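Progress report, Aim 2. The chain analyzed during this reporting quarter is listed below.
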Amino acid sequence: MARYIVHAADSCYKLPDHVSLDEGAMLEPLSVGIHACRRGGVGMGSQVLITGAGPIGLVSLLAAKVAGASRVSVTDLRTDRFDLAAELRAEIGTDLDSEAGTFDVTIDCTGAEAAVRTALRAARSGGKIVLVGLGPDELTLPIVEAATREVDMLGLFRYANTYPTALSLVASGTVDVKPLITHRFGLDEVLDAFETARSAEDWVIKVMVNIE
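Predicted structure tokens for the chain:
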């Protein structure tokens, strides 16, 4: 939380003049979504389920759409997030029991045991589940069901070699990350920013601290 920092040049990417610092800051979460879709093999015509409509779930939605997914469904316990998900052209998953085994790729962005179980059972036979969210160290999951239906479970930790892609998508206007920024604070309000991000009461997606 400083106005200036020294960083290795080969780990930095120059933002084009028309890309804002807000958009530049969103390249990190967007990179996670891109990596998740690459791990899951999301492509033209893919049907994708995303469990969790927080910041990572929504950037995964954006990445899945640009990768060519024909259908992206999003589910979350917090229904206040559905409006933004719908604006981003997602279907809202409300009755997944009736859609068990119908998605080519499911991406869990919660780490919660119930959500992972839902994502696993929603994957079609021979499909994939990408574990993005980090929850408890151990979960109880229907592994035999996953094995007999040949559902591939793929782990993910952050991202790898995705920043150039994320920057290209934002700079070209192909992906618009600005709607995900719901709150802004100055550097002198950083404690309020963290409290807002932690709050479960307010409608919060992405909190931005302006260092200018």
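The longest helix spans residues 27-40. The radius of gyration is 18 Å. These observations will guide the mutagenesis work planned for the next reporting period.
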